[in-house]
Amino acid sequence: MTDAPEALCRQAAAYLQHDKPKRALEAARRAAELNRDDEAPHRLASLALTELGRHPEAVAAAREAVRLAPADWRGQIALAEALGAGGAMLDPQRPEGHQAVAAARRAVELNPAEPRCFEVLGDIALRARRWDIAEQAYQAALRLDPGNQHAKLNLALVRERAAAPAPPPPVGGQLPAAEPPPPPANVVAAVLWPTVRTLTLVLSLGSLALIIGGLPEPGRGHVWLGVLLLAATGVLAARPVRRLPSSARRKLVRILGTQPRLGLTVFALSLGVLCLLVWTIISLFQPGDLQLPVLTCLSSAVAVVLARLRRGY
């Protein structure tokens, strides 16, 4: 029974990684009932509540985690995120904003080798329009983790916003929106291009193997090869999109429209995936010919050409 709270905490963490905050909250609260002196259930509950938009409860849970383990940087991060997610700003009339920054800075002090601490500090400063703090924090995160796409995107956004004219003062004491605007289109494109190039090769080579292996007539095994190829394509495509801020994901189609070569490459890939999907669904019930996989191979080959032109060779 002593291992039950730890198992529930691992379960809650797994639910959070799979975007299931409600189930994560249930597991974290059960763990807290079994061991009220452990900070982990309260910290995980705070993260889940933040995802659910229940900010006052998230702050209370994070404060309890910090009370139980004041030297644990993860609790400080949870507190900073809970305070910042509710629209906290660096404003004299909003002490929550100062508390959020203080919690993030405390996390940096406790674990200066963890890029996540600097990343959260940068996020809060970005929401507060404190470009100097945000830029320094993201630069520190990138020194520790040069491949951190979140920090790269937001650092570019900070520099763009810092160079732009200052916005008019808020009316009636209303604070700016907590979520920053989407990053520049060229920065989003830089994040997407590596995966797009990988997808063009996977889809073109996979569909070519399907065509060659399926001659003269595809069998049931070739249909499952199509299913596997679709699954691999979906997993690869989802990873870079999840790295983008939510503001960029919601405007992804518009951003692709400002990047013609990337937009055409994604369109060719999408057409190929659609042809393969239709062929796979039909063939699951009645094996057919290879016309649609041929279209998949052709469209993905066009995408390969466009992607190679993007790289300049």
TrEMBL record:
Entry annotated with the keyword Membrane = yes
Gene3D superfamilies with a match to the protein in the record: Tetratricopeptide repeat domain
Sorted alphabetically, which SUPFAM superfamilies does this protein's record hold? TPR-like
The protein depicted here goes by the name Tetratricopeptide (TPR) repeat protein
Bilayer-spanning residue ranges:
198-215, 221-241, 262-284, 290-309
Keyword set for this entry? Membrane, TPR repeat, Transmembrane, Transmembrane helix
Q: Which domain of life is it from?
A: Bacteria
Which regions are annotated as TPR repeats?
115-148
**UniProt-listed PROSITE patterns:** TPR
Q: Which SMART domains match?
A: TPR
PANTHER family from the xrefs? CELL DIVISION CYCLE 16,23,27 (PTHR12558), CELL DIVISION CYCLE PROTEIN 27 HOMOLOG (PTHR12558:SF13)
Does Membrane show up as a keyword for this record? yes
Q: Name one Pfam family in it.
A: TPR_16
